[in-house]
Automatic annotation (TrEMBL):
<keyword id="KW-1133">Transmembrane helix</keyword>
<keyword id="KW-0472">Membrane</keyword>
<feature type="transmembrane region" description="Helical">
    <location>
        <begin position="109"/>
        <end position="129"/>
    </location>
</feature>
<dbReference type="Pfam" id="PF01914">
    <property type="entry name" value="MarC"/>
</dbReference>
<feature type="transmembrane region" description="Helical">
    <location>
        <begin position="6"/>
        <end position="31"/>
    </location>
</feature>
<feature type="transmembrane region" description="Helical">
    <location>
        <begin position="43"/>
        <end position="65"/>
    </location>
</feature>
<feature type="transmembrane region" description="Helical">
    <location>
        <begin position="71"/>
        <end position="89"/>
    </location>
</feature>
<feature type="transmembrane region" description="Helical">
    <location>
        <begin position="141"/>
        <end position="163"/>
    </location>
</feature>
<keyword id="KW-1003">Cell membrane</keyword>
<feature type="transmembrane region" description="Helical">
    <location>
        <begin position="175"/>
        <end position="196"/>
    </location>
</feature>
<dbReference type="GO" id="GO:0005886">
    <property type="term" value="C:plasma membrane"/>
</dbReference>
<comment type="similarity">
    <text>Belongs to the UPF0056 (MarC) family.</text>
</comment>
<dbReference type="InterPro" id="IPR002771">
    <property type="entry name" value="Multi_antbiot-R_MarC"/>
</dbReference>
<keyword id="KW-0812">Transmembrane</keyword>
<protein>
    <recommendedName>
        <fullName>UPF0056 membrane protein</fullName>
    </recommendedName>
</protein>
């Protein structure tokens, strides 16, 4: 049996439901409440599908194509950093920008579901916490349940963000978006540095 508390804390840290809220506010600014709820649900379902995929076959695929796990931290960190830059230096009215982009891109999937919720760190944790040589099938199912629990917390927080959005208004959402962009850029750089450190720590076999 897995350590539920330790596993929950691990996935809560890498998924970061609290940190997802400002991102959700930014990418759904200007939407009706029903559309925001739909976007939140869609983001959670997509993130759940991605993480379950990595729980079940992620390790097999990475081993088969010879990609080291730290590469996900590095690549994901770069993508997250680019998104953070758009939050910091983008249009001062994020809702107008997102309305223009909506027909071309589903923001519930990118960047909300991936890489905000199903982050590179979460994907990596899903693979590491379900290594076939270490964890039984029962253990892996328990890890999946913990992931669903953290995703449920993220969903509840996003659904509750409607009230926050009404209180702070569009200007407040813009400020939150830019501040969160600064935080995300730091998190992204940390992810890249962590991936580089882990990669070189693997030794010649990597």
């Amino acid at each position: 049996m897995i350590d539920y508390v330790a596993t929950f804390v691990t996935f809560f840290a890498v998924i970061d439901p609290i940190g997802t809220v400002p991102v959700f506010i930014a990418v759904t600014a200007g939407m009706e409440q029903r559309d925001r709820a739909k976007a939140a649900m869609q983001a959670i379902l997509v993130a759940a599908a991605v993480l379950v995929f990595f729980v079940t076959v992620g390790e097999l695929i990475l081993v088969a194509i010879g990609i080291p796990l730290p590469a996900f931290e590095i690549a994901g960190g770069i993508v997250l950093f680019l998104f953070a830059l758009t939050m910091i230096f983008g249009d001062s009215k994020p809702d107008e920008e997102l309305k223009m982009l909506a027909p071309k891109q589903n923001h519930a999937i990118f960047p909300l579901a991936v890489p905000s919720i199903a982050s590179p760190g979460a994907m990596l944790a899903a693979v590491m916490q379900t290594e076939n040589a270490v964890y039984s099938i029962t253990d892996q199912m328990q890890v999946a349940l913990v992931i669903f629990a953290v995703l449920l917390v993220a969903l509840i927080l996003m659904l509750g963000s409607n009230l926050i959005s009404r209180i702070i208004g569009l200007a407040g959402a813009s400020v939150v978006s830019r501040v969160m962009g600064l935080i995300l850029s730091a998190v992204a750089v940390t992810s890249v540095l962590s991936g580089i450190d882990s990669y070189f720590g693997l030794g010649p076999a990597a």
